[in-house]
Amino acid sequence: MEEKGNRGRMKKGGWVTMPFIFANEICEKLAVVGFSTNMINYLTTQLHMPVTKAANTLTNFGGTASLTPLLGAFISDAFVGRFWTITVASIVYQIGMISLTLSAVLPQLRPPPCKGDQVCREADAGQEAILYISLLLGALGSGGIRPCVVAFGADQFDETDPKQNTKTWTFFNWYYFVMGASILVAVTVLVYIQDNVGWGWGLGIPTIAMLISVITFIIGYPLYRNLDPVGSPFTRLVQVIVAAYKKRKLPSVYDPKLLYQNDELDASISLAGKLVHTKHMKFLDKAAIVTEEDNLKSGQAPNFWRLNTVHRVEELKSVIRMGPIWASGILLITAYAQQSTFSILQAKTMNRHITKSFQIPAGSMTVFSYITMLITIAFYDRLFIPLARKFTGLDRGITFLHRMGIGFVISILATLVAGFAEVKRKNVALAHGLIDQPHPDIPISVFWLVPQYCLHGIAEAFMSIGHLEFFYDQAPESMRSTAMALFWLAISFGNYFSSLLVYVVHKFSAGPNGSNWLRNDNLSKGKLEYFYWLLTLLQVVNLIYYLYCAKIYTFKPVQVHGKESGTSEEDGVELANRV
What we know:
Layout (H helix, E strand, L loop, with lengths): L17 H19 L2 H7 L5 H17 L1 H12 L1 H24 L19 H31 L12 H29 L2 H21 L13 H14 L16 H4 L7 E2 L6 H4 L24 H19 L1 H8 L4 H7 L1 E2 L15 H26 L7 H32 L10 E4 L4 H25 L5 H29 L19 H25 L5 E2 L9 H10 L1
Helix pairs in contact: 1-7, 1-8, 2-3, 3-6, 3-18, 4-5, 4-6, 4-18, 5-6, 5-8, 6-7, 6-18, 7-8, 7-15, 7-17, 9-12, 13-18, 13-19, 15-17, 16-17, 16-19, 17-18
């Protein structure tokens, strides 16, 4: 992997590129969040979808939009690089947003408004098709943006430069801070416009913001540190598996010095240092055993379907080792997803008035999550890290594994508190005789929901940023777009699991007389608190699983070029936390 245009020219990358990357992120998040935050209201009030169908449509879209990053990461790492992947994907996303905006503006693309007490007509197949095509284009666009933009920003800091190699963890904190600030604007200003001015303007403004993000990002091209793609990382992983399988009957080699190494072959995929041998998963080491059949000739590359270097074998081991930690993040996303579905539906039934003439839009309640997240990030970066550094000696204060664990604990508290808030809401509805009304105006302040939103914000500041750090730091350097895709894949699975959980609970909690934990017709007559507490229980089990995985996790060991480094796990920990 070779840096384009850096020879004989001014040094590229560094903090000077951040205004362009962050400007792109601000506009893109305004578009994405303005596109999705209040969509539960659009689907139920404009397209007249049933509540559970609307909730699952959103979580399915969220899941698909978080699954497509695997495709974007593959294209980026194997063919065109991160810059062009982000640019083209942004244009695709723009087309999807234009399509959705037109459906909100043109009356023939949505069902007629409800009149009086008559049954509202749900969107027909053609109108739903426009919606799903728009969402699909949005998901495809997200697939190119999400795995690349974080890795592209971190790429601007050269890990081989002592002045820059400690900046990546700072970048992750500021990236999330900027992202949160833009989301804050989206969930306040844009949601207000959607609820009070109209959906045409409410979706049109994010569409314009997306266009600005593309233009801004392209303007910064001359300053970027662009890294060439080095071939499909998936192909290399499969080659190691095939080679190990072909040599499965060979006896294991206990001296790692006898395994095949070739620094010249690995140069393009190990700019920041090569991976050194670890003692785990020894069956994969067989892919690096040299036999007569390999017919190695001086100066010629081997057949990678039969023989691979230790570095390439360790790439696969690194990916496999990340798997259990990756899986632990799924349930946190499942819990977090309820903020954009059932929590908003709760807020719609409560007193949201700040003054007699102004009330908080239900979709804007997530503002409390983002404000708390921003405050937590600032506190973490400016106060917590310097203090923790004095005790741990680590540049980042605490390891990303500890940071993630703190996020898991706080997320458990968030869903536990959410259940008690729902009990309080229903008790007030019952006391005022409003329990049987499908759309009640319950005289209880919406601020009863603030604690659960704030706890989710704190949890995300710890867990999500820690997750990003983990993937970027522990993934092989040539697979960092893929690593970011794994981050979004966890979000995808979390959203899909949310849809599955809602479906299963809705189906199996059904009883006589229409009783159900999650009712379509009347939220107050259901048992939403049981659903929240079920999530709490699942997260407790997940925390135990995570603690075990974190305890046995082996950090990626790297030998920096030109320096000697041991291959013990302790060295791996030291080197992994150095960056």
